[in-house]
Amino acid sequence: MTPEHTNTGPTPTPCRVTICRDCCCGTPKLPGVDHEAQTTRLQALVPTRISSCLDTCDQANVIVVQPSSTGRAAGARPVWLGLVNDPEATEDIATWVRSGGPGITPMPPILDLYIFTPPRRRPSP
Question: What secondary structure, in 3-state letters, does the chain show?
């Protein structure tokens, strides 16, 4: 059988990041933050999607780390990170994603400072 006829199943989805870049995230509303450098850096290192407003403007800049298909199978869910406004945090996120991300590699403890639960996912009282 030729390689194009082998059935190896679907290609696994990699871990990736979604960057909010609309209303507040990625705009001059956050002075002193190089939004373009952050976006360019993540795009150079990891699979990256750009999103319009994720409706969490009080947490700008927001980055959501989506687990890979393998991470999801292990029970991982997306990790929402807010106030990601410095290059060191961007590097920590990229390193974690490159090493496997949620469900595969433990999150660096420094990123605990950035975790938040988006409003639509907060438990009701």
Answer: CCHHHCCCCCCCCCCEEEEECCCCCCCCCCCCCCHHHHHHHHHHHCCEEEECCCCCHHHCCCEEEECCHHHHHCCCCCEEECCCCCHHHHHHHHHHHHCCCCCCCCCCHHHHHHECCCHHHCCCC
